[in-house]
Amino acid sequence: MSEETKTLNFIEEIIENDLKSGKYQSILTRFPPEPNGYLHIGHAKSICLNFGLAQHYGGKTNLRFDDTNPVKEDVEYVDSIKEDIRWLGFRWAAEYYASDYFEQLYVWAQELIHKGLAYVDDQTHEEIKINRGAVTRPGINSPYRERSTEENLDLFARMRAGEFQDGERVLRAKIDMAHPNMMMRDPIMYRIIHANHHRTGDKWCIYPMYDYAHGQSDSYEKITHSICTLEFDIHRPLYDWFIEKLEIFPSHQYEFARLNLTYTVMSKRKLLDLVKGNYVSGWDDPRMPTIGGLRRRGYTPESIRSFAEKVGVAKRPNVIELSLLENCVREDLNKRAERRMAVLNPLKVTIINYPESQGEDLNAVNNPENAEAGTRKVAFGKVIYIERDDFMENPPKKYFRLSPQQEVRLKYAYIIKCEKVIKNSEGEIEELECSYDPSTKSGNADGRQVKGTIHWVNAREALKVEVRLYDRLFTESHMDDIPEDKSYIDYLNPESMIAVNALAEPSLKEVKDNVQFERLGYFYPDPDSSPDRLIFNRTVTLKDSKKNK
Ligand code: ATP
Ligand code: MG
Description:
CATH 2.40.240.10, alpha/beta, binds magnesium ion, seven-stranded mixed beta sheet, binds adenosine-5'-triphosphate, Rossmann fold, 3 domains, elongated
C-alpha cells in the first residue's frame, strides 16, 4: 500500500486531527517500561508504535523508566531495556526516570492537600479494601477523610520523614467513595515502603502509586499522546482528574489492545518464573519471546518492526498467530541471508565412478535473491554425506529424492544414481554407493534434468557443528485460556529444543551473521560457540511446516 492510500489507525487519526487543529505543533510520545524484567515482543510492539508515530509525524519520543516500586526494580534491567530499544533501531530524545520527579510529585501532592483534594488515611490495608465497596455497592468514607489541611500536611511530612512503619498510613485522593468507577473511590496516591531504591537509595520511604506518578510524569515532560494498553482505560478518568485538579500540561491517554501471541506467555512475571525455575537457559534463551531471546535466535530488528507494522493497532484484545512473526523473519532473511550447505542427519554416499584422487571446486551461489552476495567454491569429492531423509529404500510414487536405481541432482554438482544400499547386521542403512554422470555438471546448459535436487557435504572437509532446533515453547496455542487448575508450566513443550551434531561446509567458519542452510531453514551463530565448536540456532524453517498438518 502506498502512503496515500494506507488507512490510518485510530491513533494516527487522532494525531492528524490534533496537528491539523493546531492543538499541538508537534507530538511527543514516550515508552515507559518498569525496570522489573526484560522486554518482550509485546513491548517491542509498544516501542515500534510510540517511536514509529513520532518518526512519522516529525515528533520525538522519550524513554522513561517507571521506577516507582523499589522492591521489584533493578539497574540490570535498565541496561538491558536500553540495549533492546537501540537494537530495534530506535533512539530516544531524552532518558528520564519517574524517580527524578519524586520531589515534584511530592510538591504536587501537597498542593492537592491544600486544595482539600487529598488526605492522609490511617485505616489498615484491610479496612481500606473493605470500605471501597463493590461495583454494585458504594464505598464508605474513611473516618480520617475530613482531617484539616494542617493535619494532613503535617502527617504527610512525617510519612516522608520516616516516622511510620510500612502500611501504617497512606495518602489518598479525595474524590468520591460512591463513584461508579472503583478507580475513582479515593485512590491511594502514596504508600510507605522502607526499601532501598536503585536510584534514589534511602532518600525516600514513601513512593507514589502508578496512577499518581504516571500521568504527572507525562504532563511534566509535556507528552502529547500517552499510549498504553487497554487495561488502563478504566484509569483514564483518574489520569484526567489529577491533571485537571493540578492545572498542569494536559497530556492525554489513549489505549490499544496489548499484543498476545499463540504458543507463548507474555507477562514479565511468568517469564521470570521460567528463568528462575530453570525451564529455560536464561532471559535470552532462544525460545523466549523476549527481545533478547529473539535476537539470539536470529530474528532481525527489521523483521520485528515489520511484524509490529503488520499486527497494526487494535482496540480489542486479540491473539496473533506466531506464524505471522515467523513469516516476517523468513521474508527478511530470504533477502539477506547467505546460503550454505549442512547435513543434520548424515548418510554416507560413495561415488563409485568418481576418481579416488580427484577433487574439484564447484561454483555455489551465495544468495539467489541478491547478486551482490557473489559466489563461493564448494569442494566436491568421492565421499559425501547427504541427509538421511533424502533417501528412501521403498519410496512412494512421486518421490523425487534418492532411492534405489533412481537419480537425483546434487546441488551445484552432478546427477547421481543409487546403485547399492549397504546395511549393517541390524538391517539399518549404513551407506549408499552411487554413480555419477560427469556430463551433468551444474551450469552445463544442455545437461539432463531430474526432478529432485538435494544438498550434500563433502566428507573430507566437513565441519562438525552443533545445531539447535527450536519449536514452540508451549503446546497450547491460547495460553491465556488454559483451565484454572492448571499452571502454564504444565504446558511446556518437552521438544522445544533439540540439539543435533551436524556436518557443514567449512566456509561456515567465516559466517558471523544470519545464514540459510539450504532446504533446512535460517540459522544464527550462538554466542556459546567457540572456535572449535560452532553452534547455530535455527531461527525458523524455510516453510511453515505446521500449516498443512
Ligand atoms: P507485563 O504485563 O508483561 O509485565 P507491563 O505492562 O507490566 O508488562 P511495562 O514495563 O509496564 O510492562 O510496560 C511498558 C510499556 O509496554 C507499557 O506502555 C505497556 O503498556 C507496554 N506493553 C507491555 N506489554 C505489552 C503487550 N503485550 N503489548 C503491547 N504493549 C505492551
Ligand atoms: Mg507494568
